[in-house]
Amino acid sequence: MSPFKGVDYFNIEALLSEEEKMVRDSVRNFVDDQILPIIEKNYQNGTFPAELVQKLAELGVFGITLPEKYGCANMNNVAYGLAMQELERGDSGVRSFASVQSSLVMYPIFEFGSEEQKDFWLPKLAAGEKIGCFGLTEPDFGSNPGGMVTKAKKVADGYLLNGAKMWITNGTIADIAVVWAKLEGKVRGFLVEKGTKGFSAPEMKGKHSLRASITSELILQDVVIPEENILPKTDGLKSALMCLNQARYGIAWGVVGSMMAVYDSALNYAQSRVQFSKPIAAYQMTQEKLVFILNEITKAQLLNFHLAKLKDNNEIKHYHISLAKRNNCEKALEAARIAREILGANGILDEYPIMRHSANLESVKTYEGTHEMHTLIIGEHITGFAGYD
Amino acid sequence: MKIIVCVSHVPDTATKINLGADGKSIDNNGVTFVVNPYDEYAIEEALKTKESLGEGEVIAISVGPEVNKETIKKALAMGVDRGILLKDENPRDSLAVAKALADEIKQEGAELVFFGKQSVDYDNSVVGQMTAELLGFNSVSVVVDFKLDGTNIVAEREIEGGREVVETSLPAIITAQKGLNEPRYASLKGIMAAKKKPIDEKPAAEAKSYVEVVEMKRPAPKAAGKIVGSDASAVPELVRLLREEAKVI
Questions:
Q1: What is the pTM of this model?
Q2: Going by DSSP bridges, is the β-strand pair B152-159/B162-169 parallel, antiparallel, or unpaired?
């Protein structure tokens, strides 16, 4: 198989700086060499390829936008987005790992942590020596995180935590969990270390999606954490939502990688698969499908590029990110399903990446704010009416 | 120790090449250029050698036009300390490239130089050895294993049907073959650090090219195959054709 050349119908390449192109190419080569050869097996077996963690750290994809003094690259949001795009061309589960480590663990420690917390955790998380997870969602509170029942109580030697979290990427293998809990009625962030008495993170089994990623529950039963493990600058639910904005931004870029993977696979297949007198690419119905996918890739790329500029200029609003996450995930899932149709029965085989991306994207469309919630976020912004309660 | 790695900027092997209007060059339009793949092994070996020595400097040198800086930058992003572009906008033959490199290597005073075993554009596989000859350095080509102990070198090179172990010493030129190592990826930190690393630009030493490209053309399209039959009765005719027409048996 020849190396992936990218999909760039509008010469978006011309908008990228030399460093941004190098980041994209480096992560792209990494995906070709290190992820694609092993991912199908991991997906089929329902295992996370843990051997990638160290390699991803060396590549430098954890905490891309954070300062050098923590061992990070201090790059802009275009570079961050491109890295997520390329990783997700490999697999949404691998991108999820990097997203959680960066956006949901390193970001909150950087943004809301004390100097000691930052100095201690960020270099280790950047180097992949420590793995993190993020606990906000609960069994009964998904789209409505404000209803959380996990509670924190000030006690003599720190904080006492009780509650349960669900759908936690990396949970079982995490050394550190960023757990959100209500302290005197206000949502705050806490660092809970693996091995703390009363804290466990059993893996959730039986997924048909994101099978190469670990998803867990977090159980907190009379867990006492030291006083210094509260994230001091967290201030209500909005702090948690700021983290989600980071992750959602990465997802908006990531799913373009999935779209590129399914497009590339479907185009190659259509050009070589002969039915009746010619390759199926020569038939109008196939062309319409391919054009649809290419069109959605191109639109999403331009949306992302401008979103990155808004983010770099600090002009980004949460509803901008919602629009990109909502659109790109929906179109990526649609693209994967259409690509599968182009491959006919072959589309369901693991010889091709399409069914894996398609199944993954069912989750990606739903996590970090469902499609519906993003619709309501934008709807509330444009009408002034909250449509969700 | 000062270690030099010589790198060339070549069309991506997966790119479809079109001929230029002059019939003597390729049309660069739409062609992606990359670091010569064999040079990546050379860069990696240079970096590994510096790391194992625990000190030193790795310098990447390229001969050619301004765009070769892209390849030098990639080397810097992988961890090379600084770059030198020996500028010449006109094409040179292998010997003229080797002369420019030899001149610079002498000025830098380096005693260990890595090359890729060949550049995948013209595939002449001679620049490394020519440079060694010009400098009076030892040279080992097509190297798949390299060990440096003080000034002594033990290198394994690929030969037909096996490997040859060569013992030599500095000053030396080593040309790298696939298998020598696993080239590292340019890390995101490396890419950012490369922005601050210097690339010296100077005219390549004058040198006459003895080789002139007279014409470039595509290989003749492959003729359609011939089907002599589909069962055992066709075998005698097939043998006759292979013997008399194709002259392969």
A1: 0.91
A2: antiparallel
pLDDT averaged over consecutive 10-residue blocks of chain A (389 residues)? 85 95 96 97 97 97 97 97 98 98 98 98 98 96 94 96 97 98 97 98 97 98 98 97 96 98 98 96 98 98 98 98 98 98 97 98 96 97 95
Closest among B185, B107, B120, B114 to B143, alpha carbons compared: B114
Please report, for residues A79, A178, B11, B92, B188, the alpha-carbon distance to residue A17 in angstroms, rounded to integers and kept in the order given. Answer: 9, 34, 20, 30, 14
More confident residue, B224 or B68: B68
Instruction: For A76, name the nearest residue in chain B, comparing CA atoms only.
Output: B192
Q: What is the pLDDT of residue A2?
A: 65
Q: Is residue B224 part of a domain?
A: no
Chain B neighbors of A61, CB-CB under 8 A: 188
Class in CATH terms, A12-126: mainly alpha
Residues of A annotated as catalytic are: 368
CA distance A173 to A131: 7
Please state the domain extents for chain A.
12-126, 132-235, 238-383
Whether residue A58 and residue B187 make contact (CB cut-off 8 A), yes or no, is yes
Using CA coordinates, name the residue in chain A closest to B189.
A73
Taking 90 as the threshold, does the pLDDT of residue B249 lie above it? Answer: no
What angle separates helix B127-135 from helix B94-108, to the nearest 10 degrees?
A: 50
Q: Please give the average per-residue pLDDT across B176-182, as a whole number.
A: 97
The CATH architecture annotation of domain A132-235 reads Beta Barrel (2.40)
| CB pair distance less than 8 Å for B192 and A30 | no
* Strand segments (E) across chain B: 2-6, 9-11, 18-19, 26-27, 33-35, 57-64, 82-87, 112-116, 138-149, 152-159, 162-169, 172-176, 199-203
From B30's Cα to the closest Cα of chain A, the distance in A is 11
